Amino acid sequence: MNSHPGRVRRTWQRISSEPRLKRNVFAVAALVTAGLVTGGYILTMQQVRVPWDGKTHFSVTFESAPAINPSSRQEVRIAGVAVGDIRAASVDDRGHARLELAIDERHQVYDNARVLLRPKSPLNEMYIELNPGGPPGKPLPEDGVLPVVNSVRPVQVDEALGHLDANTREALTTLLSESDVALAGAPANLPKGLEATDQVVRDLRPVAIALQTRKETLQKLVTALGQIASATGDDDERLGALADSLQKALAAVGQRNGDFDLALAQLPDFTHQLEQATGSIGALSAQLDPVLDKLREASGTLPGSLERFTGTVDKLGETVDSARPAVDKAVPVVRDLRPFVADVNASLGDLHDVTGRLGPITTAVLPYLNDLAAFVTNSRSITSLRDGTGGAYRAIAQLSPESVTGLLPLLPALQAAAAQQGSVQ
User: What are the distances in angstroms from CA 222 to CA 182, 212, 219?
Assistant: First the structure.
């Protein structure tokens, strides 16, 4: 124990006393230190597994793993917190990507875990989002492998755009650019747009309900058609009879091709006649417009006419009420005259012959009707016992030279009668 410090002291004295030996020793020590530091860094960057690293290692299978570079120590996160990194990447026997992960050993991973490969920036820098799972799943052993069904890979932009042609990609680029400009004022304008969209969605709800009802109806229809097809397929004899009937019907239709051709040949003429009828209907409608205008004007005066007609009907009712006693008295007279009507009807034949011969007589008498009317009027005035002042004693007096001497003795009596008539008036 005591000899060890002495040996170190003698060795140091020898190095110090030997020319240029001390310098060489320091150079070798510096080179060894630099090598150790460099090797440690390299091993660290190569993610060499050491037994004391405190990590749980397992592998995950993906359909594809784009933008994976294990040397860049891409993260493994649980609930957004980094708990490990990606250590290696390889391809399995089925052509799937297999990534080796190392996470803190305090996190237990189960065989129902879900692994999602996600980009953390637009530069497609990837990380792994891990849901470690839990019971009833079984704990995953060290260096275990999760199958491809437990993983989800991201869809790359080029995969979505690869199916588009050049014009569509250019239009999509323009759309994204315009969307960027349109969304510049999104904080001020987007809430109103979302409210309007919400209102549109409410308005479209009856349409969606109607479409859902239509979908259910179509499902019922398809089910019914399937049942009919099944029932028809099971009955081969009936289906054969139906096919035979259809063939006979088609044959009968084929025999009437001539009639169909004649009907088709007459169709243009029918179309022409229909066009003429349509033009006539148009002309009729043009003529009906003034009639409808007149009817509209007449409808304005119709209420007044109806009111006046109502007054006329009321007066007619009063007239009827007044004439009712006369009609009641005339009924017996008409009843008594009914037997004479038969005799009059019998004599109408003889009167027809007589009236047929009165035409020349009427023609000859017609020019003298005015004179005859004057004669009747004068005769009535002469023979009437009344005049404009009332009743009077009237007589025809004929004067002649011989009658004057005969009237002289009667003159006093006539004067007295005239005086009496004047006093009475």
Answer: 46, 15, 5
Question: What is the arithmetic mean of pLDDT over 170-186?
Answer: 77
Question: What b-and-e string marks burial along 285-309, b requiring 16 or more CB atoms within 10 Å of the CB?
Answer: eeeeeeeeeeeeeeeeeeeeeeeee
Does residue 136 have a cis peptide bond before it, meaning omega lies within 30 degrees of 0? yes
Q: Which range among 40-49, 223-232, 270-279, 343-352 shows the weakest confidence by mean pLDDT? A: 40-49
SS (H, E, C) 203-236: HHHHHHHHHHHHHHHHHHHHHHHHHHHHHHHHCH
- Dist CA 371 CA 365 (whole Å): 10
H-helix or E-strand containing 7?
helix 3-17
The domain ranges of the chain are 3-44, 55-161
β-pair type (55-62, 145-146): parallel
The encoded tokens of residue 259 equal 């009639």
Cβ neighbour number for residue 62 with a 10 Å cutoff: 23
Distance CA 242, CA 236 (A): 10
Q: How far apart are CA 44 and CA 73, in angstroms?
A: 10
Residues whose CB falls within 8 Å of the CB of residue 117, separated by 6 or more in sequence, listed in order: 62, 65, 68, 126, 127, 128, 129, 151, 152, 153, 154
Q: For 112, phi and psi rounded to 5 degrees?
A: -100, 20
pLDDT digits (tens, 9 = 90+) for 144-168: 999 999 998 877 766 767 777 788 8
Taking the CA atoms of the chain, what radius of gyration do you get in angstroms? 67
Alpha carbon 199 to its chain centroid, in Å, reads 17
Task: Tell me the two tokens of residue 375.
Answer: 């004669």
Confidence check: pLDDT of 397 > 80: no
Tell me if 173 sits within 8 A of 167, measured CB to CB.
no
φ and ψ at residue 146, rounded to 5 degrees: -90, 135
Q: Residue 73: which pLDDT band, with cuts at 50, 70 and 90?
A: confident
Predicted local distance difference test score (pLDDT) of residue 48: 58
More confident residue, 406 or 121: 121
Distance CA 32, CA 35 (A): 5
CA–CA dist 416, 408 (Å, integer): 14
Residue 91's pLDDT is what?
92
- Res 424 pLDDT > 70: no
